[in-house]
Amino acid sequence: MDLTYTPAEEAFRAEARAWLEANVPHDLASGDSAEGFAQHLEWERALHAARWAVVSWPERYGGRDASIWEWLIFEEEYYRAGAPMRVTQNGIFLLAPTIFEFGTQEQQDALLPRMAAAEDLWCQGWSEPGAGSDLAATKARAVRDEAGGGWRLTGQKTWTTRGAFCTHMFGLFRSDPGSERHRGLTYFMVPLDAPGVTVRGFGRLDGDEGFAEVFLDDAFVPDDAVLGGVDRGWSVAMATTGSERGLTLRSPGRFLSAAERLVELARDRGAREDALARDRVVRAWIDADAYQQFTLQQVTEIAAGSATGARSSLNKLFWSQLDVRLHETALDLLGPEAELDGPWSRGFLFALAGPIYAGTNEIQRNIVAERVLGLPRK
Amino acid sequence: MDLTYTPAEEAFRAEARAWLEANVPHDLASGDSAEGFAQHLEWERALHAARWAVVSWPERYGGRDASIWEWLIFEEEYYRAGAPMRVTQNGIFLLAPTIFEFGTQEQQDALLPRMAAAEDLWCQGWSEPGAGSDLAATKARAVRDEAGGGWRLTGQKTWTTRGAFCTHMFGLFRSDPGSERHRGLTYFMVPLDAPGVTVRGFGRLDGDEGFAEVFLDDAFVPDDAVLGGVDRGWSVAMATTGSERGLTLRSPGRFLSAAERLVELARDRGAREDALARDRVVRAWIDADAYQQFTLQQVTEIAAGSATGARSSLNKLFWSQLDVRLHETALDLLGPEAELDGPWSRGFLFALAGPIYAGTNEIQRNIVAERVLGLPRK
Amino acid sequence: MRFALNSDQAALREAVRDLLRAECPPAVVRAGWPGSEESDLARVRRVWDQLGEMGVLGAAVPEADGGLGLGAVALVGLLEEAGRAALPLPLMETAFVAGPLLAAAGEAALVERLAAGELVVGAALDGSGIVPFAQVADALIAGDARAPGGELRLLRPPAFAPLESIDGARGLGRVAADAGLVLDLDAAALAAAWERGALGAAAQLLGLGRALLALAADYVTERRQFGVAIGTFQAVKHQLADALLALEFAAPAVLRAAWSLDRGAGDAGRDVAVAKALASDAALQVAATALQVHGAIAYTVEYDLHLHAKRVWAGARAWGDADWQRTRVAAALGLLPEEALR
Amino acid sequence: MRFALNSDQAALREAVRDLLRAECPPAVVRAGWPGSEESDLARVRRVWDQLGEMGVLGAAVPEADGGLGLGAVALVGLLEEAGRAALPLPLMETAFVAGPLLAAAGEAALVERLAAGELVVGAALDGSGIVPFAQVADALIAGDARAPGGELRLLRPPAFAPLESIDGARGLGRVAADAGLVLDLDAAALAAAWERGALGAAAQLLGLGRALLALAADYVTERRQFGVAIGTFQAVKHQLADALLALEFAAPAVLRAAWSLDRGAGDAGRDVAVAKALASDAALQVAATALQVHGAIAYTVEYDLHLHAKRVWAGARAWGDADWQRTRVAAALGLLPEEALR
């Protein structure tokens, strides 16, 4: 047990903190609106230029070869500095780990540097109108185009966050027409400007055009758009969703900084005199702290070579519920001002999506019960 | 909308209150222990002698022909006076309404006066080792004895509250050997001193011998032990469980008086200075009050001829959860004294059974979802 | 003892329900968002006119002042219906708070116009100066009805700074503390106005909750995943059963509080507090559940759920949130010195 | 950064776990209820002797005073195992509180006997005078470690009035405020003893919770209703998943608090409060869930579940309940004046 960082890690923290303090932009428009997305892209490119965009990646792809501990430190500092959400997150935190695990050397060399530089902007293409929680019900299909040396994609994807602003999408397609459920699916990476692809943005609860539907009509992609092998998409996709549920998308830094802001709000709003509100503030702070400790333990296991597996569902349940409670508490403190458009009310609306995306919390509880506790499936 | 009682009802209340104040015994041992049961029987006989045992029954059976409103008033006064739990409750509140609905005139005349007088003491025989929540899995069987003019009962019943102290049991037996699930069951009323019947008491969480297993080995009962018709036991049983879940077993008076005692405890224990404990006390009091209002509305509907039906599951969910929270809050107030054997710790243990018996709360939620909200079963 | 509306009250409620079902579908709720693409305030105002023709707007005004003189018991049913429809106008504030208040203040001309449907009144009596529906109202009442020696002011024409809300239909405006003219009201009238607002808010929350629960129950019956309707999953069933439980036990408390108010019972304030606390918690729970069982579709503005959910998030915190109301109950139970309240 | 026990610590914990699994099955827990039919205190004491032989009893005593000088990080794992086994003796109070306390008070002879397994010590430092395990202990420490200027007293032989508890194994006794001899301790030693007790209680609650969850998971896998194992029902699955979630997020907080205590970190008190608050809530939740998914069988004394559940209900409220601990955290976050605490 040693909960201290090494001098080298502390130096890394100091460097990150100094750079962030000097460079973090404030008051950007929402990254899920057209105007804000452009502002966020500028920030992403500034991060990349200073090699802070993908710290844990190899240097040749734009990273710093940072250890997983350094990555955690960077995330802490990033949110502590009040830096903007990462509009590149679905690429760098979800697709990239999957490319590192399943991609060919050529795919890695071609895709990762452009992703790091925010030249290619990736969105997810998991859900379909009839396949939300039930990802294995995927109907969008891929038909082999021998002559063209690739595949023809047809179908509809939906709930694609920032799809209207991105350049590429990754997702599952049914490549074996006779297959059912988890079998016969292939994981494709699709340029959204390919002929036959149409993107329609639509509005989220917070008013931003943050969602998109993506229609594919016989859209051609070459063979190297396949990640991890034809008809083997399910296990590749599971690696991506594991990242989404687990650590990489939701490091503790984000919740620690939100909890600190909540404590500040409580001090400002006289919660010293309101024991009920104060108790909820403390609960939220404790939960953010507990998420940090859980993560440090988990990263110790990962660093020792253990796979997180189904336990990433515990992360997802915990952070999604924590995020909702934390923002609800802020709204309670704000009283009649709670309904004003502002960072806390927007944060609340954003948090509400947490128990739904990346596999609903109902699905996560099934996974925990069956695969961690070993309860019978049928 | 008129939430006042008539002068006649108020007079009834005054009479009940006066009698109870003069006669309620205190400091009885637990009614679920052998010693306490005898003390409680004395009380039941005193109630009967003064015609307070079964106020809503016809006078010829020992009651007062009281209206449902007067019954509610009596219950309020009963608990307000701190009177003992009713060891006769499974007879007078569960079996009796079923006898009134399904029994023959002969059965009513024979059984009800003895029940009212606490001469016959009834326990339930629903659960079996393999049939708890799943009552339709009943295996205990009834075989026709043509020669004897009755039936031979064989099987095992369990979780029979106060079974070791009672004289009679009611429950379901499979009378059609080829039947499955809800069909082919018959509702029998069984004297526990019949040859072939063995009763074994065993201990509950609170240390009392409050449970019993009842073993039946070819025990003979005559034809008039059948309530509501051969092979028609399921619908008869549903009437009894409706009473168990709904109003008759748990009138608001019990929770109102417990909530008032909780408020007193909170005042004594300085909850004025502890906003968190105070808030939980207030929540419990509010819930008891809400249960009272819900009941008044429900009784208005019943008085107007509406059947409560599946909505009795709402009662059961609400009072069982309220009872647990109310007692938990009392233990919080008691601090280090919470674990001492006393009325609050015993009440807590008793309350814990609420979400389990009379159909687990999981079953009740299924019923509410399917039969009140109309969600699909499959 | 009879815990139910009488037949006149039930018939009036039914009529309002029918009117709103026909005239205030989700498209009209969307039309009530000032400044949105779908905004059509004239269309919304036609619903108001019809409510005026039914006599609903002056319903709580005493007969001597030209109203119907109906009590809170009759009104809460109507307000629940307004909540169910997510009516994007301040029916509660106008009919249940402003009507009796202006009558008490001797503003006979205004009362007449209000009852005729010519005066949409926004009101915020919590001292925040943030008034819902300011952007669509013809007059505003603002001030602090809870503060000792508090006063209320009438702004006409309303002067306010518009505020962006997460719920566009709330049309918020901020008013200055010294704007408008002080209404001539005694402390009892102020207190009564606050109780009516809190109770009316509770009634609206019930209606909002019932609409959300009905939407959710329909959706999970239709939506299929894993080869079955998702309403067959126990996790979905139990969440919706718990949501119904919360609503069904809040509803009688609202009706009882209305009866207490009408009787001028000593416990009326406590009963209103119980009602608002239960209704706030129930509506928040139903909104969270409805959103969760819908999944992603509920998270879009194209789907109707948010029209009600956003109203719940605002309404649960308005007119005293559940914490505040429970503190009032604590005071009534002798668990708090009265002075500790404001 | 390394958030894990080292191999020595892990091995010691494993050894204690193996010992208790073999020597402290439910029958031995029942044997620890003084005065019950199954009571056999000599049998329980043999487990204590074996813990003494392993060096566990003097583990937290400084090496200079004849102990192993192990820190809290090593100890909390052992105490979690004692909780898992529901060991019906005050291992936490003796090894983690009394050992270091008596050493600090200069009671060398007692420390030696404690480490050798000859001195079972019950302790209650909350000022209530209600001491668990008084009925089986050889010495008691009682007093108020939280009050400013508080003091602790040693009772030997213990003098107490026995009290009936809902959990017979707790063997409660009430001691008089002026009984025994005052221990020679400074304020820092008192405070440290309280922190160790709170942390030790948290660790035991984790172990109790893990045992209850394991029992529940096994039961629902075996028990069949409606033709299937009840563990296939989503309502059962989700309750157990939530119970695990609570435990899994409390456990790292306990280990971190131990590390903070060992380092003498300024935040140690806050970290202990976080740990005890989370562990108390988690254990209560798991106990309620385990009872519920079992149904009626859990409600009998013949089944083993209550042996752990009753310990949880007592332990969650001992050494500062979750409310009290969160108030300490509030103070540390500047949300409360320090003076408001006791």
List the helices and strands and how they pair.
The complex is a heterotetramer, with 2 copies of chain A (378 residues) and 2 copies of chain C (342 residues).
Chain A: H1 7-23, H2 34-49, H3 68-80, H4 89-102, H5 105-116, E1 122-125, E2 141-145, E3 150-157, E4 168-174, E5 185-191, E6 197-202, E7 211-222, H6 233-245, H7 252-268, H8 275-303, H9 312-334, H10 343-352, H11 361-372
Helix pairs in contact in A: 1-3, 3-7, 4-5, 4-6, 6-9, 7-8, 7-9, 8-9, 9-10, 9-11
Chain C: H1 7-23, H2 26-31, H3 41-53, H4 72-85, H5 91-104, H6 108-115, E1 121-124, E2 130-131, E3 139-143, E4 152-155, E5 161-162, E6 173-174, E7 181-182, H7 187-222, E8 224-225, E9 228-229, H8 234-263, H9 268-294, H10 305-317, H11 322-332
Parallel strand pairs in C: 1-3
Antiparallel strand pairs in C: 2-6, 3-4, 4-7, 5-6, 8-9
Helix pairs in contact in C: 1-4, 4-7, 4-8, 5-6, 5-7, 7-8, 7-9, 7-10, 8-9, 9-10, 9-11
Summarize the structure.
Chain A folds into 3 domains: 7-87, Butyryl-Coa Dehydrogenase, subunit A, domain 1 (Orthogonal Bundle); 122-233, Butyryl-CoA Dehydrogenase, subunit A, domain 2; 246-372, Butyryl-CoA Dehydrogenase, subunit A, domain 3, CATH 1.20.140.10. Chain A has 11 helices and 7 strands.
Notes on the structure:
- The complex is a heterotetramer, with two copies of chain A (378 residues) and two copies of chain C (342 residues).
- With 378 residues, chain A is α+β, with helices and mostly antiparallel strands.
- Chain A has three domains: 81 residues, Butyryl-Coa Dehydrogenase, subunit A, domain 1, CATH 1.10.540.10; 112 residues, Butyryl-CoA Dehydrogenase, subunit A, domain 2 (Beta Barrel); 127 residues, Butyryl-CoA Dehydrogenase, subunit A, domain 3 (Up-down Bundle), CATH 1.20.140.
- Chain A has eleven helices and seven strands.
- The longest helix of chain A has 29 residues.
- The mean pLDDT of chain A is 94.
- Chain C has 342 residues and is of the alpha+beta class.
- Chain C has a domain of 154 residues: Butyryl-CoA Dehydrogenase, subunit A, domain 3 (Up-down Bundle), CATH 1.20.140.
- Chain C is 55% helix and 7% strand.
- Chain C has a four-stranded mixed beta sheet. Chain C has a three-stranded antiparallel beta sheet with strand order 2-6-5, with no helix packed on it. A two-stranded antiparallel ribbon of chain C has the order 8-9.
- In chain C, helix 1 packs parallel to helix 4, helix 4 packs across helix 7 and helix 8 runs antiparallel to helix 9.
- Chain C starts with 6 loop residues before the first helix and ends in a 10-residue tail after the last helix.
- Chains in contact: A-B, A-C, A-D, B-C, B-D, C-D.
- At the A-D interface, helix 7, helix 8, helix 9 and helix 11 of A face helix 7, strand 9, helix 8, helix 9 and helix 11 of D.
